[in-house]
Design goal:
By secondary structure, the protein is an alpha/beta fold. It has seven helices and six strands, in the order E-H-E-H-E-H-H-E-H-H-E-H-E. Helix content is about 35%, strand content about 15%. A six-stranded parallel β-sheet has the order 2-1-3-4-6-5, sandwiched between helices. The longest helix has 11 residues. The chain is globular and about 50 Å long. The chain starts with 5 loop residues before the first strand and ends in a 9-residue tail after the last strand.
C-alpha cells in the first residue's frame, strides 16, 4: 500500500499493539490520545479523520471498554458512508480502570466485567457491518481481505477481536 493507513488509538492497552503493528509509518500516520485522557476517543476520531481525507485509509484500534464510551460513532460512520476499519480488542472489561484502581489500593473494583456485551452486536444494531474474530487465523484472514480495499471503502467495518484479559497489564 503506497500510503500507510492512518491509525487512531485510545491511549490504553491497544496502544502497544498498534504501535508495533507496522501501520504507524510516516508523518501523520498515527494519532494517539494523550496519557489515557481520551477513553473512547478512537471511534469518533477515526471516523472524523476519514471524513476529512476520504482518500487516506484509516484504522482505529481500541479496547472494548473504551469503545463503549463512544460507541455511537459507529452509527455516524455507517450513516455517512465512512470507510474506516475499527479493530476492537474485546476482553469484556475496563482493563485500564481495573488496573488503575488496583494500583491506587482501591481493592475490588465496584464495576463488573461486561462479558455478555457484544461489541459486534452493538455495531450491527447501529448499522455498522461487523465480524466477531476469535483467533489469530481469523484476524489474519480478515485483515488480508480488508486492508487492500481500505483506500476505496465507502462503508465502515468493525472487527470485534476476542482477547484474553492480561492480569499483568499495567497502564
Amino acid at each position: 500500500m503506497p500510503d500507510p493507513p492512518r491509525s487512531r488509538c485510545s491511549r490504553t492497552s491497544p496502544t502497544t499493539w498498534s504501535s508495533c503493528s507496522g501501520c504507524t509509518r510516516g508523518r501523520w500516520s498515527a494519532f494517539l490520545s494523550a496519557a489515557m485522557g481520551g477513553l473512547g476517543f478512537a471511534l469518533p476520531a477515526a471516523a472524523g479523520l476519514r471524513m476529512a481525507d476520504p482518500r487516506r485509509p484509516v484504522v482505529a484500534v481500541i479496547g472494548d471498554g473504551a469503545a463503549l464510551y463512544g460507541i455511537q460513532a459507529l452509527w455516524s460512520a455507517a450513516h455517512y458512508g465512512v470507510g474506516t476499519l475499527f479493530v476492537v480488542l474485546s476482553n469484556g472489561r475496563y482493563a485500564v480502570m481495573d488496573r488503575l484502581a488496583e494500583a491506587a489500593g482501591a481493592g475490588r473494583v465496584p464495576w463488573p466485567p461486561f462479558t455478555e456485551v457484544s461489541v459486534s452486536g452493538l455495531a450491527t444494531a447501529l448499522g455498522c457491518p461487523a465480524r466477531r474474530i476469535t483467533g489469530h487465523t481469523g484476524l489474519t484472514a480478515a485483515l488480508d481481505e480488508v486492508i487492500p480495499s481500505l483506500a476505496t471503502r465507502n462503508h465502515p467495518l468493525l472487527l470485534d477481536v476476542a482477547v484474553t484479559p492480561d492480569p499483568g497489564f499495567t497502564p
